[in-house]
Specification:
The protein is α+β, with helices and mostly antiparallel strands and 601 residues long. The protein has a domain of 142 residues. Helices cover 57% and strands 11% of the residues. The chain is built from 19 helices and 11 strands. Strands 3, 4, 5, 6, 7, 10 and 11 form a 7-stranded mixed β-sheet that branches. It has a two-stranded antiparallel sheet with strand order 1-2. Strands 8-9 form a two-stranded antiparallel sheet. A hairpin with a 5-residue loop joins strand 8 and strand 9. GO terms for molecular function: flavin adenine dinucleotide binding; oxidoreductase activity, acting on the CH-CH group of donors. Keywords: FAD, Flavoprotein, Oxidoreductase. Its cofactor is FAD. It catalyses: 3-(methylsulfanyl)propanoyl-CoA + oxidized [electron-transfer flavoprotein] + H(+) = 3-(methylsulfanyl)acryloyl-CoA + reduced [electron-transfer flavoprotein].
Amino acid sequence: MPDYKAPLRDIRFVRDELLGYDAHYQSIPGCQDATPDMVNAILEEGAKFCEQVIAPLNRVGDQEGCTWSPEGVKTPTGFKEAYKQFVEGGWPSLAHDVEHGGQGLPESLGIAVSEMVGQANWSWGMYPGLSHGAMNTLHAHGTPEQQSTYLTKLVSGEWTGTMCLTEPHCGTDLGILRTKAEPQADGSYQVTGTKIFISAGEHDMADNIVHIVLARLPDAPQGTKGISLFIVPKFLPTADGGVGERNAVSCGSLEHKMGIHGNATCVMNFDGATGFLIGPPNKGLNCMFTFMNTARLGTALQGLAHAEIGFQGGIAYARERLQMRSLTGPKAPEKAADPIIVHPDVRRMLLTMKAFAEGNRAMLYYAAKQVDIVQRSEDEEQKKAADAMLAFLTPIAKAFMTEVGFEAANHGVQIYGGHGFIAEHGMEQNVRDSRISCLYEGTTGVQALDLLGRKVLMTQGEALKGFTKVVHKFCQAQEGNESLKDFVAPLAQLNKEWGELTMKVGMAAMKDREEVGAASVDYLMYSGYVCLAYFWADMARVAAEKLAAGAGDEAFYKAKLQTARFYYARILPRTRAHVASMLSGASNLMDMAEEDFALGY
């Protein structure tokens, strides 16, 4: 398995040179402590931890998996010890409020560290990763007492958190969930039901696990309007904040999965477990979206992570593997054959992975800036604009980045040939681990409906305009820039077409609402490709400026420009197929009778 190397040079390029994070931190209240020196020190130390401590456990977790017993779940060898180091290093508290024991640094810095953690060992990273959403939910909706009891322990990393939504009979459709919560005389609730697919639901890495659970009150209305949110800890806290008696919540079994074997995916049984209401009764779904949006950006990060790992493994192998001669003559005549990196098709796959990894990093870090503004800005208009931008970008980031991340992981296998199918190289694990990312926190189809139906059409295109205005201003500003002539005109045309397509789909949907579902995935993927076209054009701008100024690191900036050109020439044309498909209408999907699907058997 190739050694993981944190992509610090590119992380710094995106943060410092493309997105101006230093000025961003100085402009946002409470972020001034995130000086360049501090940020670099954190990134360097985070990279060391990821490269030296958790990356070597990645294959261990895949091979060993987690072990269930009536006493609890045991994580793979080394996971518990690595988590102890993680907590001792103060990493869980990095981007959380000082009043709850956090370090008060910006969320976007935490996301940069999370990127490296996810690339080094996605299964391990899910244990502290799920806690992040629990912390955000408690911060936004918990009472001061709940925050004092639970949030402080979660911030320190002593306890971890989960999100308990899905039940055996319902996945995305939470309106039909059955878990119930009975009010008790002391103000608590008895929570009863079964939840499935609960990541990090049971393990031996922390002293306590805080489950954030959706359930129904006895008098709750039907559907999503009758769902409430509860804290259900594995161990009930004592008066002094310690770990008390065991609650009536247990892991019934572990799921046998395609990938992410090192993370415990649990069936959780709540047998009259003591729970505590978070937020207002019957408003649990509203509160849960705080958790969900955190998780969706985290899942977008997974798409980036698997693209990066596919690329790192692919480039290492392509430089070493000897196979055939170049079509234009030997490139390594002293060797028995040329390294496969000389072959155009291998380069196609490598550049595809590179374009997706680096382009998606730019999109994710752009979204992370919006998170900082929403959380910390004192300018209400600025916060409102950032929140709208984040709402628009989240389904694109979650679904597009995971789809192309899975594609990139597959290219990693392909470059290795038959060796890619063999476990020792790590590429087949990368594919298996990445596949879930297109499913959880809402499948690609669900995210596409959210984007096109709720975010774009229900706002009459206003959500889309927020981003297309950014692109339009960029194109206007760079119109006469000779170094960007290959990018600006195509980007401006796509930006214009984006609005026109939205109008066409919207008009068709007025006649037949099935048109929204029929067009939605193609619309989302089109949107993702156009978003990346903007970020690649902007990265090309920075690279061209650096080269013109003789700033040094010439090879790095030339590679940026070459990758941008590859993206525009080889990947961006995929938008044409998505346009044709989304405008073809719903009839080619809906006209076939249900019974005719199985004809021929």
